[in-house]
Design brief:
The chain is an all-beta fold. Helix content is 0%, strand content 41%. The strands form seven sheets. Strands 8-14-13-10-11 form a five-stranded mixed sheet, with no helix packed on it. A five-stranded mixed sheet has the order 16-24-23-18-19, with no helix packed on it. Strands 2-1-5-6 form a four-stranded antiparallel sheet, with no helix packed on it. The protein is rod-shaped. The protein starts with 13 loop residues before the first strand and ends in a 10-residue tail after the last strand. The C terminus is likely disordered.
């Protein structure tokens, strides 16, 4: 620090300068050092505790004397204060386990131990799918901890799915840097692809319930199936309604649909079904188009439905028109 000592003209010259300090926890100033050559520059050595500098605010003032014996007036208040901060800040990245938005929110939770000079900046490092090492993704130069990492896009302008691993490094205003890291603090699976499912059921039925089986899959890299819903359109119905949900679905499963009744009799007619699957990342399968249509069975044998469309791509979600052949003019119950 510099005392900026001077002696007004006509000058006998500055003969000495005293440095006074009030250390952390002190209630008054004490003489720390005297420059007997009249120089103004001081290098104050911070006291230590257990081998480490004592952090906190150090307040200073100076008193000058000249060769003629004149003394600068006494002072009681600090002219300058320096915060001693030798402790590195800390951070620890967290993020959601799954994301399907193309933007991954990461929180660094950066902090600087008291007495603090304050977090000055935080760096976010990422290891993308297929990478062998971490690279700097972004720096918050205002010291904030919140990051919104934009997932890179593939040639088709779709987010690149897979695991994204992160860690953060914090820096404080005093120049302390958090220690380097080599491992991930958090990992998020980016999954933006909808799962697929397909419903299958017999073409005819004469029981009070209809068994509907399904197959379902989630495109790799997969967040896993979360649920499969069964939707039905009843005879003469204007649309589909959800009738059941499998909350612990596997690659295959089944539903038992209870045929509605009117009085003591079941409601005969055509029952149409489809399934909708959702994965744990929140991707929901689209509602299929028109269900495949089946004609009523005749004496020549049962009706048959169209199979899945061939060609590349995920399994198509198909619905199945189920015929309840209890009508007297079609099939008589035995």
């Amino acid at each position: 620090m510099d005392a900026h000592a001077a002696d007004a003209s006509p000058s006998s010259g500055v003969s000495s300068v005293e440095l006074y300090v009030e250390k952390p926890g002190d209630s008054s100033f004490t003489l720390a050092h005297t420059n007997t050559d009249g120089s103004s520059s001081f290098n104050y050595t911070v006291p230590t505790s257990s081998g480490k500098p004592v952090n906190g605010n150090y307040s200073f003032y100076t008193i000058a004397h000249d060769t003629a014996g004149n003394n600068e007036a006494a002072k009681s208040a600090a002219e300058t204060t320096t915060l001693e901060d030798t402790v590195a800040p800390t951070s620890g990245a967290t993020s959601a386990q799954l994301d399907n938005s193309g933007t991954i929110a990461v929180n660094a939770h950066a902090a600087d131990a008291s007495p603090s000079s304050g977090v000055s900046s935080v760096e976010l490092y990422v290891k993308k799918p297929g990478d062998s090492a971490f690279s700097l993704a972004h720096t918050n130069s205002d010291g904030s901890s919140a990051f919104n990492y934009s997932v890179p896009l593939d040639e088709g302008k779709a987010p690149v799915n897979g695991d994204y691993s992160f860690y953060t490094i914090a820096h404080d205003t005093a120049g302390n840097d958090e220690a380097a890291k080599t491992g991930a603090e958090t990992t998020t699976l980016e999954d933006t692809v909808k799962p697929a499912s397909q419903a299958t059921a017999p073409a005819t039925n004469n029981d009070a319930s209809i068994d509907v089986s399904y197959s379902a899959s989630d495109h790799s890299p997969s967040s896993a199936l979360d649920s499969v819903e069964l939707w039905v359109k009843v005879p003469n119905g204007s649309g589909y309604s959800k009738t059941a949900t499998d909350s612990t679905p596997g690659a295959s499963g089944s539903f038992t649909y209870t045929v509605p009744t009117s009085g003591a009799a079941t409601v005969d007619g055509t029952y149409s079904f489809y399934t909708i699957s959702t994965d744990k990342a929140g991707n929901r399968e689209s509602v299929p188009g028109a269900p495949e249509s089946l004609e009523p069975a005749s004496s020549a044998g049962p009706a048959s439905g169209l199979g899945p469309a061939s060609g590349p791509g995920p399994v198509r979600n198909l619905s199945r028109e189920l015929q309840n052949f209890w009508r007297a003019n079609t099939v008589r119950r035995s």
